[in-house]
Write a structure and sequence with these properties.
About 30% of the residues lie in helices and about 30% in strands. By secondary structure, the chain is of the alpha+beta class.
Amino acid sequence: MEGRYANEFHIGHNAFEVVFEFGQFYQGYAQPLMHTKIVTSPAYAQVLLQLLGATMAEYESRFGPISPVGGA
């Protein structure tokens, strides 16, 4: 399985699908370089949301709070 780094995310939806786009943004570039698109149903997007929330809670309990991007 190929792994790709992403620090740029776009999410969209219509009545039937949720679309996640992943890419990389480099300083000095005008546009991010998008490389992966995942299309799924709203029900599976909800499962992903729950898994992401549980994973981040576990991460923070193990390693501490995550600093916001940009230091804000």
